[in-house]
Amino acid sequence: MRYKNYVLICGGTACESSKADEIYRNIQKELEANNVHGETQALKTGCFGFCEKGPIVKMLPDESFYVHVKPEDAKELVEEHIVKGRRVTRLLYNKPDCTTSAVASVDDIDFYKKQVRVVLRNCGFIDPEDINEYIARDGYVALEKVLFDISADDVIKELETSGLRGRGGAGFPTWRKWMFTKNTESDQKFIVCNADEGDPGAYMDRSILEGDPHAVLEAMTIAGKTVGASRGYIYIRAEYPLAIHRLEIAIKQAKEGGLLGDNILESGFNFNIEIRLGAGAFVCGEETALLASLEGKRGMPIPRPPFPAVKGLWGKPTIINNVETYANIPAIIRNGGASFAAKGTEASKGTKVFALTGKIANSGLIEVPMGITLREIVYEIGGGIPNGKKFKAVQTGGPSGGMITSEFLDAPIDFDNLTKLGSMMGSGGMIVMDEDDCAVDVTKFYLEFTVEESCGKCTPCRIGGAQLYHYLEKITNGEGTMEDIESMRKISRAMQKASLCALGQTAPNPIISTLKFFEDEYLAHIKDRKCPAGKCQKMIRYVINEKCIGCTACVRKCPVNCITGEKKQMHVIDQAACVKCGECERVCKFAAIVKN
Amino acid sequence: MAKLTRADLKKIRDAKSKEIRRRDPEGKTTHVIIGLGTCGIKAGARETFDAFLDEVDANEKLQLEVTVTQTGCMKGGCDGKNEPTISVIASGMEPTVYGNVKPDAVKRIVNEHIIGRKTVSDLVIDLK
Amino acid sequence: MHKTLSDYIVDLTQNSVKADSNVIIVSLMEREDGYIKVYIADDGAGMDAETLARIRELLPEDRRNAPVCKCSQPLESSPGSPVPPVSGEKRLQRTGGQGIPYLAELVDKCGGVWDVVSEDGIGTSLFFEINAKHQNAPPLGNLASAVACCMGMEGGFDLNFSRALGDESYSVIRSKAAETLGDLHGAPALAALREFVRQSENELTKKGD
């Protein structure tokens, strides 16, 4: 069947929670009501990436891009766009500067212009709940190739040529993991997919699993064939219900179609994949802790070596890769490693998916070639900082990473450069901060997270993390001393050296990074007892100056009644009672209340 | 679903990939739909069809990008004055219906609308 | 009236496509004495008795009441066609356009015959024969482009076009053509198809001479 029109509705978690499903059902209903359902196909796809503007509805073939769509808009979209062929201008995406009238199509949207979609090629394009759509997009071609045409060594060779490095954080060359596992003799081996995505603000893996689950299944099956494993596990956090649901459907369809299970495509190769739910502990993203959790034990890391590639799940050689790493593999086998290596930089090949969030105009999921600069990401794709604020820094690598400041905006982004800059690639979270963000406060937020998520097995992480957090709290409360900074540096070094796993080793990174780039802010907190960004509540004071005419507007607004004064007289704030909510500043028409 | 064989996979790819490619943001396409009802044919829509085929086939880039389809009488456009009518749907542009598309107009539509990405405003007709 | 016979073929084939047919058969047989017979049949929606009767009103009186041969057997699908014959459960109704009235006028002017039979949900079959040497008969026109035009119409139907001149003949099957040429909506495929018919037609007329 050839359809004349397509309506693609974003079915990622973000859009889904803004009623994408209802939009989908309403559009289906309207198509039928207008008797155009025979020539128009409505599909719910994976994430489009442009989450800032969701829910998104895209119309093809003319590529109209409708944003912030509500269920009740379905009628107008169908009657106007599909039936009459006229665009619904009020819902079309507008450029942030609003100088041009409605932007025409995806092509004209800056958010997409610089992106190169390899891993996300199917996200927002196919119906992830229909295996045939994946197959039609050259799905399972790579598996056929591996089953029938090329040897295990060829597979590893292609991976080596591609230069693919693990997308989960550390960037270990994938081919070497596979080779170790392949070369280790064992009666049983395992393939594990790490879908325990835990960095705050990161949702790359979730979106891939929601939008293109078969890519991961295919890659795991290829891994199984290559190293001689017959079982695979996907370890995914239970907080990702939609991704789990789509994976379950994908596994079921692949089994029914004979692409998983016994005697795959009559090749004699057997491979099964099971889903294992994690309870959302951050440390279980660490591979040895993840494997422990898979075995039913407490999710705690063990020292390496031996590496899981040699001695992993139940003591057997195990490949453990992250979701995005797997999602790259079918294309590498299909098109050859060289085509993958053509993108990116010398030591970091291919593309990387980032979750762009924080103080940025276009937040969302993006895929860019390695080596792109931060400036391109923040200003061209991300559309810059909203409300005319000044850029301060980007936190990459989540709680294990560090800040990249404006002087490094033009440094190419790849594994090694980010490490050199004192941050790391991590799994791909990118949080943008503007002048209103306090470096010390943000650091405290990350430490709070790592202290909370520490498994407690090793002392440096358990005690050191808590101590670091304690010092940060002292400083943001305005009680810090210069000795505290020194202690923090010492503890950080100890944690980096002595912690058992990456969680503890990298937990001090935000501190080291901010002490390097924003030492002046720490000093302002300690010496001047001031938070330059005005973020640390304990350190700010609202005072009323002589501009006050005694209108009493603030008195009426104050939730704790701490402002006193006669009508038409200057008022005063009782600092002891003030909760620093800032309501008085907002309500004052005479700029008589200031923060200092 | 029954177990698939390699031949089945190929069949699914062949059958579905063309259809799915129409959604592909990378494979930019322009669809030209020619109204070939009795009225259109009488007004010379066949020559229009031929002219489109010639224009597009002569240009290697357009060969890959443009599809030409025939449909019956276009609802509402058929009033005995506007034929032959065609509709051009180019990605990123408002779907447009043109009237009185004789072979010389075909050249203009190909050059200005499909290549130049600008509507040929004097040929546009309004379908109501 | 259309200008050429090819126009009639496109117009009438268009009706079959619109009727949601799975298989359409178009044949154009030209006798050496100059008589041309065109046969267009489909397994599409068909017409109900009332519509058919209204259309048959256009026939000359002596033919109008001739017994209608029921096409109770669904058309056999053409060789190589992936589409099985229809089950006859379609609800769509074939709507009469201007195509058949035009045909009636043509036949009337150049002294030929035509007829149409149809059954609701089974299909429609239509034929006409004219003397191409009659002074009012239109020329054959650009048959190559007409065939390309029919093949490129929107829909999942198969179309078997055959053309004979005397004892010589050639044919084009849509599904086969798509296999060799690729998407029949792409201009290169359609142009190649058009060229194939043009050459076949040249050879045919050469041999015929």
Give a brief rundown of this model.
The complex is a heterotrimer of chains A (596), B (128) and C (209). Chain A is of the alpha/beta class and 596 residues long.
Question: Please, could you describe this protein's structure?
Answer:
- The complex is a heterotrimer of chains A (596), B (128) and C (209).
- Chain A is 38% helix and 14% strand.
- Chain A has 596 residues and is α/β, with parallel strands linked by helices.
- Chain A has five domains: 104 residues, Glutaredoxin; 211 residues, Rossmann fold, CATH 3.40.50.11540; 84 residues, Ubiquitin-like (UB roll), CATH 3.10.20; 88 residues, de novo design (two linked rop proteins); 55 residues, Alpha-Beta Plaits (2-Layer Sandwich), CATH 3.30.70.20.
- A five-stranded mixed sheet of chain A has the order 10-9-13-11-12, with helices on both faces. In chain A, strands 2-1-3-4 form a four-stranded mixed sheet, covered by helices on one side. A four-stranded parallel sheet of chain A has the order 7-6-5-8, sandwiched between helices.
- In chain A, α11 links the parallel β6 and β7.
- In chain A, α6 runs parallel beside α10.
- The longest helix of chain A is centred in the last third of the chain and has 18 residues.
- The radius of gyration of chain A is 27 Å and the shape is globular.
- The termini of chain A are far apart.
- With 128 residues, chain B is an alpha+beta fold.
- Chain B has a single domain, classed as Glutaredoxin (3-Layer(aba) Sandwich), CATH 3.40.30.10.
- Helices cover 41% and strands 16% of the residues of chain B.
- Chain B has five helices and four strands.
- In chain B, α3 packs across α5.
- The radius of gyration of chain B is 17 Å and the shape is elongated.
- The mean pLDDT of chain B is 78.
- Chain C is α+β, with helices and mostly antiparallel strands.
- Chain C contains seven helices and six strands.
- In chain C, β3 and β4 form a beta hairpin.
- Chain C starts with a helix and ends with a helix.
- The chains are: A alpha/beta (596), B alpha+beta (128), C alpha+beta (209).
- Chains A and B meet through α5 and α6 of A and α1 and β3 of B.
Low-confidence stretches of chain B: none
Measure the end-to-end span of chain C.
29 Å
Per the CATH scheme, the topology name of chain B is Glutaredoxin
Total E-strand runs of chain C: 6
CATH architecture of chain B: 3-Layer(aba) Sandwich
Largest sheet of chain C: 6 strands, mixed
Strand-pairing-aware structural class of chain B: alpha+beta
Helix content of chain C: 25-40%
Assembly annotation: heterotrimer
**Sequence of strands across the biggest β-sheet of chain C:** 3-4-2-1-5-6
Number of domains of chain B: 1
CATH architecture of the domain at 5-141 and 158-164 in chain C: 2-Layer Sandwich
Put simply, the count of helices of chain C is 7
Backbone shape of chain B = elongated
Report the mean per-residue pLDDT of chain C as an integer. 79
Radius of gyration over C-alpha positions of chain C, nearest whole angstrom = 17 Å
For this structure, the CATH topology of the domain at 5-141 and 158-164 in chain C is Heat Shock Protein 90
**Low-confidence parts of chain C:** 69-91
- Measured between the Cα atoms of the first and last residue of chain B, the distance is 45 Å
H/I helix tally of chain B: 5
